[in-house]
What we know:
D-Amino Acid Oxidase, Chain A, domain 2; 6-stranded mixed beta sheet; 2 domains; FAD/NAD(P)-binding domain
Amino acid sequence: xxxxxxxxxxxxxxxxxxxxxxxxxxxxxxxxxxxxxxxxxxxxxxxxxxxxxxxxxxxxxxxxxxxxxxxxxxxxxxxxxxxxxxxxxxxxxxxxxxxxxxxxxxxxxxxxxxxxxxxxxxxxxxxxxxxxxxxxxxxxxxxxxxxxxxxxxxxxxxxxxxxxxxxxxxxxxxxxxxxxxxxxxxxxxxxxxxxxxxxxxxxxxxxxxxxxxxxxxxxxxxxxxxxxxxxxxxxxxxxxxxxxxxxxxxxxxxxxxxxxxxxxxxxxxxxxxxxxxxxxxxxxxxxxxxxxxxxxxxxxxxxxxxxxxxxxxxxxxxxxxxxxxxxxxxxxxxxxxxxxxxxxxxxxxxxxxxxxxxxxxxxxxxxxxxxxxxxxxxxxxxxxxx
Length: 386
Ligand code: FAS
Ligand code: PHB
């Protein structure tokens, strides 16, 4: 098989890149390890930056998102019994869109007409540091090969693309957080019209949503916890303990239809390009979900790579793809910083001293009372410019 861009990974990065390239007549093949249904069964992100909304529109996949997505002009932050609001549109004139990653991925799959191969294994990226890269893989036990001009490594944190770059070239930076997030999806009305990020002396909690009848809640949990340790009743009782009393009182509980624990890490690999292999999204970087930046930073990578590949094929110049890694990493590191800062502000860390707790409280007081602090948070949350 031959294509122009071989895309490893059929998650949001690979599908969005594939759809944008397809709209410009650039041929792609997506290789996905799992099935479409499996990919769509994973409950992940819920908040889209305007940049991702614009890319979905440019990809011709924005109709349902515009119909069903919920515009949010701010978010609530609580600590102890205090709760205050950070107004995004007041400080940035931009909102965010609440629309689940599952739906983004579904819309991209529904739109995709170019070749997608599911249930692949033994994927190998070969000769990426030459002008004639190719990808080998097995499907149904039969070995296959795709010759291509470029390879987009969109295969997430556990994929093969990042490790194709030799250790002599690759530099990795990592911070593992001493806690996880226990997430629950429930067919209940959200406790509030906006998200609530809660810092409590028992740990972090987040009240989010997917639509007016579908809520998404998280509580910080121990890395030693497993989903089996948490009955629905235990989860709801703990969530209520971490919210201001009026919000806890208003919380509508119900059976969980999904329950999972995600570990939290900050991770960046440099460079994001090696020869004709380009890394996109979680294949290159991970953030703690506190700032809702994982999916959105995958989108900014896709924007830079799409523009570079479009310029290569349409104008015959390599400026865009040559600048990709440096350009993408400049934004990635700012997102890593914000996600680390917001996680440090909102969580309880096992090794926090009394002094650390007072500093955290002072930072929350400053954010509550200072417009410049709220403007800085809002700029990062709605998404830094591409
Ligand atoms: P993905 O991991 O989504 O997709 C990679 C795809 O590649 C997968 O479909 C995988 O099956 C496939 N693949 C892997 N190896 C392969 C191989 N060798 N060959 C072929 N295919 C292969 N972000 C937020 O903003 N908010 C959140 O609340 C949030 N929660 C998260 C919870 C969890 C448990 C995880 C893991 C991530 C969460 N994220 C969240 C981040 C998440 O949304 C990612 O940023 C987003 O999925 C990135 O998309 P991709 O880069 O496409 O990677
Ligand atoms: C979600 O709705 O899943 C969500 C929202 C905001 C975050 C993280 C997760 O910061």
